[in-house]
Amino acid sequence: MNRQSSENRRSFFSTHPISDVSGFSYRALPRLPAGEYERFVKAWKLLASGGVQALVRKGDMAVTGAGVCEALLARSWAVRYLDAEEMLRLATVAQEVAAGLGTEDLGKAGVAGLQARALGEVGNALRVTGRAAEAEPAFEEAFDLEDEHGDPYLKAHLLHMRATLYGRTGEPGFAAQLLELVSGFYDKSGDCYLGGRTRITQSIYAAHLGQEDEALRLNEEGLAQIGREQDPALVMTALHNRLLLLLRLGRKQEAKRTIESWGGFAADGPVALRLRWMEGRILQSLGELEEAEATLRQSRDGLSILGLQRFTAMASLELASALLLQDRFQDAQTEALTAQRILLGMADRERYFGVLMVLDAAFSSGGVTPELVERALAVLR
């Protein structure tokens, strides 16, 4: 590896947290041949500046090779909280690039591994975009290719993503079983970060199974295993989970102390905005209604700017609940209608018809209550 290549590698890893690429990519990138790593850095910059179109438009940047494939996978991971459709587009192009790779640089097993990862990321992106039925074949093919590669870390990575698909299809028990296997592997391997990330995911499915105390334990263990600067988005996700679980367990003051100990949350990213939303819910549960309203409005407006429609609708309904508690029926109805308009404009709007019909009838009859809105939110969550 030449001196410039070494400097580029150090520069990228010193300026990008793991939240910019998947945990497995951090293991794979240093193994790229020097020339392909340079192409990775170039492609990453183009993708960060303008997505897939920026890469395609650049005449001297052929959309081929392992470096470009890694850049597409890394960028797909980086936008997972921001734009699910872009996440899927990037993963799909990566899969197409991986399918055309020769064996000169990575060897047969290395190519099979990269192809398996790309298919796994396509499956994961399909899950995130609500297309779970299409995700299953992608994972099946990914596991077939993984057998050729034989890397236990790759298998664990694919199993982690496959577990989240079980969670999406209403099978949290299967998700929990798979994640237990994955976390056990990382514990034996001594990989603190990936073990922590898996425990945070485990906590979600423990909560789905009604095991709130166990979910909180897993979440705290996971949070302790990752660094705040190493993966800021994951840390904020774990904090969001902690607040949600503390509210479910009725530990409102402890939830508020958590917010205070972390110094509040900046409203400049999707996970941070969801934390602000949780802060509003906690303030509402403690009867601090004016503060709750202001916090929920800030969260709702920020989520709307980012185009996160479902979360914007849910934050609007949360705000409607806070307004009802202040006997402001008309303002609450306006927020509920905003949520209704957003949800009915989404591709999977059929999922929301039942909840929206109940809310519409309740507001129309004047019989709506904050408790009813909360029950509707529980269904949407």
Descriptive key words:
mainly alpha, single chain, 381 residues
Tell me what the structure shows.
There is one protein chain. By secondary structure, the protein is an all-alpha fold. Among the domains are: 1-169; 189-249. It has 19 helices and no strands. α11 (212-225) packs antiparallel against α12 (232-248), α12 packs antiparallel against α13 and α14 packs antiparallel against α15. The protein is globular. It starts with a helix and ends with a helix. 46% of the residues are buried. The model is unreliable at 1-6 (pLDDT under 50).
Secondary structure blueprint with pairings:
Blueprint: H1 3-15, H2 23-28, H3 34-57, H4 66-78, H5 84-99, H6 107-128, H7 132-149, H8 152-168, H9 172-189, H10 192-208, H11 212-225, H12 232-248, H13 252-261, H14 270-285, H15 289-305, H16 309-325, H17 329-344, H18 353-365, H19 370-380
Helix pairs in contact: 1-3, 3-4, 4-5, 4-6, 5-6, 6-7, 6-8, 7-8, 8-9, 9-10, 10-11, 10-12, 11-12, 12-13, 12-14, 13-14, 14-15, 14-16, 15-16, 16-17, 16-19, 17-18, 18-19
Helix content: over 70%
**Percentage of β-strand residues:** under 5%
Total helical segments: 19
- Rg, rounded, reads 22 Å
Q: Describe the main β-sheet briefly.
A: none
Q: Could you tell me the mean pLDDT? A: 87
Number of strands: 0
Order of secondary-structure elements: HHHHHHHHHHHHHHHHHHH
What overall geometry do the principal axes of the alpha carbons give? Answer: globular
Could you name the ranges where pLDDT drops below 50 across 5 or more consecutive residues?
1-6
Q: Please give the alpha-carbon distance between the first and last residues.
A: 49 Å
Structural class: mainly alpha
